[in-house]
Specification:
By secondary structure, the chain is an alpha/beta fold. The chain has helices at 42-60, 87-95, 99-116, 131-145, 217-229, 246-258, 297-302, 307-315, 327-345, 361-372, 377-389, 395-409, 432-447, 451-463; strands spanning 7-10, 15-18, 26-31, 64-69, 146-149, 152-155, 190-195, 213-215, 233-239, 271-277, 280-281, 323-324, 467-468, 478-479. It has a 4-stranded parallel sheet, sandwiched between helices. A 4-stranded antiparallel sheet has the order 5-6-7-8. Strand 3, helix 1 (42-60) and strand 4 form a beta-alpha-beta unit. The relative contact order is 0.12.
Length: 480
């Protein structure tokens, strides 16, 4: 537990603020979750590494945490505004399955990826479980804030104060830069309820006062946030792309529902703080799902990289900075993780002791200061390495210190072994056992100064894609 004040960047005010919980001793956090119509790419997953690190830090500060990540299984169109087909219906038609089956499959895959990244368990409510509450919400705000047109019930953004303040993207005439939909009063108005067009039938549709149809994408987060956490809750997180359309629309709905005033009082937005992680950038263009083949966590595994190497890669950059993905960068993150795991293995049998030993005070103070400074994980990692490097100290004390730091960073250092991090690529033509057996034969040949045999074994392995690393200081003798 740390008593240092936690400073966090609030996207709504564009300033660093001291975190003060709405409910003493408790933190309530809502994170925008995935639309489960497809696999999540690794850029999507950066948001959940960030949100998990935030949650772990709040616990480090001694707070009881309630953290919700919603599952969007209805309502999200192919455009983030109000145009296009529903992503769930479109994928269901493409695969010849029900939208419900599509949602179940991709939600389970998403949750598997969370577990691989050591993201702590959280509540995952599905939008379809709250449609009744969404209709009730629409009924409450409709008279003062909404109007109907042919395609459904729309929210009039001019009925709330400070629309778009979060995005800082509102034009002088009060409208954000969103393409028009027929019948809307203002381009930035958005759907509360989307009516099923005449003559069409959707797999996911419900009766409502505005006709048979489905809720708008923005509505679900407002409803689940209020229902599960209460207004105002502490922190709302998401990717920086949500800052421009989705979150401003959420905020407008929250203001209407609560009868709140303007956003000079941050709590009127529904949350005291809004936090956003920046993009993961990949220069080859394989980050977009529209490309067909895109970067997802399973691909990293298939190429021989442990998922926690990706978590390490994310932690090496500040969450508000762009992070460029490269295979070399991922490999460097894996090497750094291996070093830490090897050092932690030496403490595996130690019984955790008192972490307040004076030798560790500088590292712990550096770590706490870094995490308290808007989650500066890059500096916190160096503090962890400094703690691992402390010599001539009781192993149990060191283990306790490292466990405390790792409880915040989530690298699972005491749950991994070096062999866990050596993953055979899916397309490898040789097994790990075959490689180990060949290396043993080569070592024996070298010991007997039979360099011809040693070279032949090396060339044999190279032909199968195995690169030997003689003299590697980490003791990792090969890679594919």
């Amino acid at each position: 537990m740390s008593n240092t004040p936690l400073q966090l960047f609030n996207s709504l005010t564009r300033s660093i603020e001291t975190f003060a919980p709405v409910h003493p001793g408790e933190a309530r956090v809502y994170s925008c979750g995935p639309t489960v119509y497809n696999y999540q790419h690794i850029g999507n997953m950066r948001a959940y590494v960030f949100a998990d690190t935030l949650g772990r830090t709040l616990r480090w500060k001694g707070l009881k945490l309630t953290h919700v990540i919603n599952i969007t299984d209805v309502g999200h169109l192919t455009s983030d505004a109000d145009e296009g087909e529903d992503k769930m219906e479109k994928m269901a038609a493409r695969q010849g399955k029900s939208a419900w089956d599509i949602a179940k499959f991709y939600q389970e895959d998403f949750e598997q990826d969370l577990a691989r990244l050591n993201v702590q368990p959280k509540a995952h409510p599905r939008a379809t479980e709250y449609v009744g509450e969404m209709i009730a919400w629409g009924e409450k705000v409709a008279d003062k804030h909404c109007y109907e047109c042919e395609s459904g019930l729309y929210f009039d953004i001019t009925t709330v104060e400070d629309y778009g303040r979060l995005a800082r993207a509102v034009t002088e005439d009060g409208e954000s830069r969103i393409d028009s939909v027929a019948g809307k009063r203002n381009n930035a108005d958005f759907a509360i309820w989307r009516r099923t067009p005449a003559g069409e039938t959707r797999q996911m549709e419900w009766d409502s006062p505005w006709g048979k149809g489905a809720p708008g994408w923005h509505l679900e987060c407002s409803v689940m946030g209020e229902k599960l956490l209460g207004f105002p809750f502490d922190i709302h997180t998401g990717g920086i792309d949500h800052r421009e359309i989705h979150h401003p629309n959420e905020i407008a709905q929250n203001q209407a529902f609560c009868g709140c005033g303007g956003l000079s009082e941050a709590a009127n937005s529904g949350a005291r703080m809004w936090m956003h992680n920046n993009f993961l950038v990949e220069r080859s263009g394989k980050m977009s799902k529209s490309s067909g083949e895109f970067l997802r966590l399973q691909l990293l595994l298939d190429k021989g990289y442990h998922p926690l190497a990706y978590r390490m890669m994310c932690l090496q950059a500040h969450y508000r900075s762009e992070l460029e993905f490269s295979w070399d960068g991922l490999g460097a993150a894996l090497t750094r993780l291996k070093r830490m795991v090897m050092q932690a293995e030496r403490l595996a049998d130690a019984v955790a002791g008192d972490p307040s030993h004076q030798k560790f005070v500088p590292a712990l103070e550096k770590f706490d200061a870094a995490m308290s400074d808007d989650l500066n994980t890059a500096i916190a990692l160096t503090a962890l390495e400094e703690a691992l490097a402390v010599k001539k100290v009781d192993a149990g004390i060191k283990r306790a210190v490292v466990e405390q730091m790792d409880s915040v960073l989530g690298l699972n250092l005491f749950g991994l072994a070096r062999t866990d991090l050596r993953i055979r690529p899916a397309d490898a033509e040789i097994t790990s056992d075959d490689i180990d057996e060949a290396i043993a034969r080569r070592k024996a040949a070298r010991a007997e100064k039979d360099f011809a045999t040693s070279d032949a074994i090396r060339d044999e392995l190279a032909a199968k894609g195995v690169e030997l690393m003689d003299g590697d200081p980490l003791g990792w003798e090969w890679k594919l």
